[in-house]
Amino acid sequence: MAIKLKNKLLPIVIWIVLLTFGLSGLLSGFNNSGYYAKRDYFQTVQFQDDYHRFLDLLSGFELSELTAEKAKKLITVTNAEIDEHRYRYGDLSAQVSNIKEQYEDKIQQALASNNEEVAQIYMAERDQKIEDITNNFKSDDHVRAKIIKEKEAHIDEYFTFLERQKEEFLQYKNTFKYYLKNTKTGKVYSNLEAIQFDSNTSDKIKNSLVEDQINKGNMAFIRDYSNHDLLSTEGRYPIGYDDIMLPIINGSVEKYEGQIAIPKVAPQGRTELQNYYNYQKEQLVFYIHVITGLAALAICLLIYKKTNWIRAISFEKWQRYYMRVPIDVKIVVFLVSCLAALLALTSSHYIYYDYYFYNKLDDMVIYLGGGAIFVALSLVLGKMVVTRLLDSKNVKADFQKSLAWRIVGALQSAFLNRRVGTQMIILLAVIFGCGIGAVIVLLDPVFLIIYVPVLLVIGIPVFILLMKRIGYFNQIVHNTSELAQGNYEPDLPINGKSILAKLAENINTLKYGVKVSQKAQAKSERLKTELITNVSHDLRTPLTSIITYTELLKTPDLTDEDRNSYIEIIDRKSKRLKVLIDDLFEASKMASGNMELVKEKVDLVQLLQQTLAEHDEALSESSLQLRITKPDTPLYAHVDGQKLWRVFDNLIGNILKYSLENTRVYISMKPSARKVEIEFKNVAKYELGGDIDELFERFKRGDTSRHTEGSGLGLAIAKSIVDLHEGNLDIYVDGDLFKVVITLDLM
Q1: Which of 70, 80, 255, 459 is a plausible cystine mate for 455, CB 3.0–4.6 Å?
Q2: Burial, 661: exposed, middle or buried (Cβ in 10 Å; 0-12, 13-18, 19+)?
Q3: CA-CA distance, 22 to 17, in Å (whole number)?
Q4: What value, to the nearest 5°, has the Cα angle with vertex 738 and ends 734 and 742?
């Protein structure tokens, strides 16, 4: 088994190592071609910077015979410079006002402290400056003298700065050999050994002597000059001296011819020649690395195209574990792996150089092996990440489960109440700051002077506040736990206006809501029981009578008179049962919302009169005294006339059933502001106790003994019909006075 696994993994490992080596060679070519593609080290930017630095120093110390005194004599001042100096801080009035403001406070403070001598000194300085500024605007010569003085100071500073560079110039002078002649004066500047020329020495002899020392045989670098300006090298002067020195130097630019070279044998302390030889070696390594790397990449590509074992590699064993990782973590790990691989590959050039010339095999193995590991990891992670991202069905769900999504959700939750989020950040910052401060104090106890007051003023109060909040939170948790178990603890204290106080207030409110809900639930259960009992009673009573008299009709010797009497009772009870069932069916339809209204324009006054007319006989036979108040003009409303008639019919029927004998009944209709109120008032025959709202419940009757023939559905049906018309039906009870008020919209 071990041999099979080894035989399977070995080709993969070799392919990954080849790929890593090839990629490192390719990256080395991209990154280092600009440096190693030069002919030699002397063509590189690094050497050119050193070379121009040497020219700058050579020009300053030897080629230029300009001294500070000569430079000062060459100073010139233009009219533009005079105007710039004169108006540098504004016109005359602005500059005078500025000087006065500068000295006003100083003079006043001196006078306030009774120090007139100091005040006089300030006044003298002020007046002197004002006089100087005034002279600036009166005389160009006055300004010119000041500018010349400033330039002379800058020239002195420049030559002082130049002198500090002398040690560096001497080091360059030991490295570079030069022979330069001023084409105008014929003066020679050289550091070649044992060369002395006089005015009688011919150019041929001079050139022969110079060539004996500066030639390709003993020099690694040679640069020839012919009538060349060496004094105008860009960037020769430090920032701040260019404006002063360049105009002076440009007036005395000289041309030179000759040679500057570097011997093949370099002195100690300089690196130019050593860099030259190192460059040759590194250049060879570079080309070998790039060529072999490209060859390795070609081999890898050929193996990938010609074989299937690389593409057949499966990650199913890892996939189930990998799927548990959030998608953004997968992407970050993949990018980090790619970055690590890139760093290992880009730095490998120097490791290969050490291996080729110093046989440092350990570093070579470490970098190549580490790079191969990160390359392999990047390939594996890249394949799985890309495969998952291309799965459009799951990618949205993956991002919703990502770590960043969770963090954003957590932050949104934390700052749902901005005050709480801000307080949390402040508390964490204070705690973190106290911890950092403690570490700093341990490193350097001198910071105790700052740390202790900050800890006493901020740290400890914040700690106490945090402990109080935690205790308050624990108290809330305990209260809610008891509430969940049905134990009603005392109300939570409301401390301040914090979010915890708001939470405690809400919990107290919820606790009372639970109590009310429990009472409502108990009431609902009681009403449900009463409903079942009342329905059973109201349906069973006529049904029992029907069954009883039906059995009596089966008696053989029953007389015609008794038979007719029994049939009449059965007929009456059947109609009674039908009324109960119809009312129950209609109430159920209304409760379920299945009742449809057929609305039209209806005169409510006429509808009420029609309802009263149908009950006219019953009202006349009763002992009740009816009092009706209604407008003389019609009141139109957009309603279902048949359903609203049922409301009036039920209410008048209840009045006939439940009103006390020999009492007055009041029915009124009062319009007001696009609405109408219809009132039905009577004195109840039975005592109205308990919850009045229960009268709207189905099968609930004012006659608790249920001796009357009502179904107990009249008010429930009336209430439902009025609600369907977007109106209101309310009941008011004052002692035995029973009042129903209906409110409807008018057209």
Answers
A1: 459
A2: exposed
A3: 9
A4: 115
Rounded-to-integer distance, Cα 231 and Cα 253, Å = 6
Decide: helix, strand or coil at residue 390.
Answer: coil
Q: At what angle do helices 392-400 and 327-346 cross, to 10 degrees?
A: 100
Task: Count other C-beta atoms under 10 Å from residue 375's C-beta.
Answer: 24
Tokens of 162: 């130049």
Query: Phi/psi zone of residue 499: left (φ > 0), alpha (ψ -120 to 50 degrees), beta?
Result: alpha
Angle at 655 between CA 654 and CA 656, to 5 degrees: 90
Cα 40 to Cα 46, 269, 272, 628, distances in angstroms? 12, 21, 12, 123
Token output for 724: 């369907």
Q: Can you give the pLDDT at residue 198? A: 54
- pLDDT attached to residue 707: 47
CA–CA separation, 235 and 232 (whole Å): 9
Residue pair 638/601 in contact by the 8 Å Cβ criterion = yes
Reduced to 3 states (helix: H, G, I; strand: E, B; else coil), residue 192 is: coil
- Round to whole Å and give the CA distance between 713 and 533: 14
Q: Name the amino acid, one letter, at 7.
A: N
At 448, list the tokens. Answer: 């105790």
* Structure tokens given for 709: 């023939």
Q: Tell me which H or E stretch contains 458.
A: none
CA distance 491 to 274: 88
CA 194 to chain centre: 76
The residue type found at 83 is D
- The pLDDT score that the predictor gives to residue 668 is 92
Residues near 283 by beta carbon (within 8 Å), at least 6 away in sequence: 36
According to the 3-state scheme, what is the secondary structure of 676-742?
A: EEEEEEEEECCCCCCCHHHHHCCCCCCCCCCCCCCCCCHHHHHHHHHHHCCCEEEEEEECCEEEEEE
Give residues with Cβ within 8 angstroms of 394, minimum separation 6: 388
Q: Are 513 and 433 in contact (CB under 8 A)?
A: no
* Paired tokens of 662: 């020999």
Are 629 and 588 a contacting pair, CB within 8 Å? no
Q: Are the C-beta atoms of residues 604 and 669 closer than 8 Å to each other? A: yes
Q: For residues 227 and 551, what is the distance between their CA atoms, to the nearest angstrom?
A: 149
Structure confidence at residue 184 (pLDDT): 84
CA distance 628 to 616: 13
Sequence-distant (≥ 6) Cβ neighbours of residue 664 within 8 angstroms: 624, 625, 626, 627, 682, 683
- 556 token code pair: 């053989």
pLDDT digits (tens, 9 = 90+) for 256-314: 888 999 988 766 656 788 888 888 888 888 888 888 889 988 998 888 887 776 666 66
Q: Judge contact between 367 and 348, C-beta under 8 A.
A: yes
Task: Point out the residues of the chain with pLDDT beneath 50.
Answer: 1-6, 232-236, 239, 696-711
Cβ neighbours around 404 below 10 Å, total: 14
What residue has token string 């069932």?
581
Q: In the numeric block, which tokens belong to residue 599?
A: 């609305």
Contact 697, 674 (CB under 8 A): no
Q: Look up residue 77 and give its amino acid.
A: V
**Beta strand pairing call for 219-229 and 600-603:** unpaired
Tokens 């690590």 appear where?
Answer: 340
* 3-state secondary structure (DSSP) of residue 673: coil
Ramachandran quadrant class, 269 (left: phi over 0; alpha: psi -120 to 50; beta: rest): left
Sequence letter at residue 20: T
For residue 18, which of 335, 425, 210, 296 has the smallest C-alpha distance? Answer: 296
* Cβ pair 591, 720 in contact under 8 A: yes
